[in-house]
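Fill-in record for Helix-turn-helix transcriptional regulator.
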Amino acid sequence: MSVTIDIAGLPQERIVFGPSPLAELSAALHVLSEPGHHPGLHGWATTTAAGLAPDLLSRMSEAEFLWRSTRSDILLPQGPMPPAALAAELDAMDELDDETYVEAALEINASGCALRGDSGGSPLVDEAARKSALERASARGPRQLDFAHHLLRDPAAVRTWIRRLLEDCEEAFFADVWQRVRPQLAADAREKTELLRRKGLTDALHAVSPTVTIRDDARGRRIHVDKLARGRTEAAQPGVDPGVTFVPSAFGWPHLVVRYAPGWRPVVEYPVATPEVRPGPGTSALMEKRLAAVAHPARTRLCWALARAPYTTGELAKGFGMTAPEVSRHLKALREAGLLTTRRHGRYVQYQLDVPVVARLGSDFLESLLR
């Protein structure tokens, strides 16, 4: 599974990199709502939450569906290059019409997959869409359902309430955060822009993440984001400024957020390198291959031995009462999954479990789910 962005015919200069205060604020709010996703930021989340006024914490909890399990489209940049000030991005948010705003705000789904427009209309004017939105809100609890009713009944008032909440978050903690992280994010965006200019899109995307690649085939040219989700959009859409915006985030890891809803400019928010961020777990296909490799009972027993010492095929066959061809097949599966190291001694080849790689399987699997 993956998310793809069709960029056929798109000039390279339409692909831009820039930090977004609104996206960074929503990423920080997500960390406060789901600190378990971000162990490296646990101290920041604990300290920040402890310093917030109870009223602000209550309002943040009421609106957290906008950033907790999914990131609402309204919380990502509206135009090609995000402005430096949060107020300017909030002004751009205010320019959205009510139908667009409400439909995006009511994108409620705990699995992280978009459930927008499933009834074919806006919940403000289409009864089936309204019913569907309220059903999804109800599944998230009474507070969420109450909020959805208010938004559908009086969009203007709720939009004003949300803006005020984001402004109060800026005053309470985000202004200091933005002052601290903005230089790093701006430097990263400049680095990626220069890499794009000098070496091209493939290298620039690889610098964003090894899981973001370019694919050229009979269907055209596409940006391919390896995620355990499925989605597709186009860089050129009617009524939308054509292009793709890449937004660096100091609060993003392990997430790789992609806005791919129809009618919105595609945005990819990616984590910048920080001390707690290590290389990612690779593609989802590789993760599935590794999990399948160690799930087989015979291979689990072989891993038990290979974790302790290097062995040849013949030694393993004798020790486990298996034929050499059987052992070879299992070793091949483990080797192709990248779980073994090998070394040759004359005509003998010894195999050993790559312990650091196997030790990361649990965290890599979680990162693949959260990406």
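KEY FINDING: Residues 284-370 form a domain with the Arc Repressor Mutant, subunit A fold (CATH 1.10.10.10).
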